[in-house]
Input
Amino acid sequence: MTHEVDLPSAWFEALVSGAKVPLGEALTIAERGGETARALLGRLHSRSGVAHIIGITGPPGSGKSTLVNELAIHFANQGRRVGVVAVDPSSPFTGGAVLGDRVRMSRASAHEGVFIRSAASRGFLGGLARTTHDFVRVLDAVGYDPIIVETVGIGQSEVDVWQVAHTPVVVEAPGLGDSIQAMKAGVLEIAAIFCINKGDLPDADAKRRYLRELSTRAEDRTPGWKIPVVTTIADRGEGIGELAEAIGAHARYLRETNRLHALEHERAIAEIRASLQTTFVDVPLARAARSGMLRRLADAVASREMNAADAASALTRHVPTDGRIGESGA
Ligand SMILES: Nc1nc2c(ncn2[C@@H]2O[C@H](COP(=O)(O)OP(=O)(O)OP(=O)(O)O)[C@@H](O)[C@H]2O)c(=O)[nH]1
Ligand SMILES: [Mg+2]
Output
């Protein structure tokens, strides 16, 4: 496939050499989608695949953003360039947690070695999964390593952390009730590391015992890797070094056991799925909404003149055959 859009070569050189201004612009292009995004991501693709991608997930309020802030600073202090993608699934109408996250991550964002960007949902053209993959791709290609992705919950968001990350860290905190019990099945499937944050709160020991037990139960799934249970007090910066070491150990485990290769394959499938979702669902829906076609079809389905499958077929006839997620769709 050809990429006909010309990207100014001086700009591209500045981008891949690590300048922050073109990086911010590149992420905006990626977020918007369309031909320019496609051309840009096409050129960056072969440069990516270097970074270790860390996922931080867990229930709302467990301290993920605080933890990401501290972890990012920790790695940056080792001389690494750290990328952070904060996935905010909340609707554009309610505003969501982005503002609060900005406050909690402000220390890291002031650090020269850290680059933070939120991926927020944008209604019909949401494509949050696609945006997240693309942000990671861009940061990876221009030399950020590690990249930390914060997402909410498991099976609670459009973007599940295992689809993006090499090392999913599941964060739990005392005082949140049975949050992790509720996502137990999913947690056991994906967690590489358990982190009990808010270790200063009274219930931390009970949570730790519970997670240790869960961790032994998951041993069959990952021969050679025993899920560590790390305790942190993120708002005081305690336990961050231990968490970073556990993450490093998991990265080595993936490399040495060749698990990395299989993981990359799974991540590629997730990325293809996200791209299909954008091209064949999000974009046609957005176009049909704009042209009024969606309203007419919905009326026809609601009044029983047509069924939903036929309406969907009518919509897919409007998908461009070259799979373009055209500028006009943004
Ligand atoms: N006691 C205590 N509070 C903490 C700790 N870490 C974070 N907090 C507080 O917990 C609250 C939630 O922290 P966040 O970092 O926003 O949590 P989050 O998981 O990112 O929340 P969402 O993004 O809304 O899902 C904030 O008020 C933090 O200051 C900790 O180790 N101990
Ligand atoms: Mg957060």
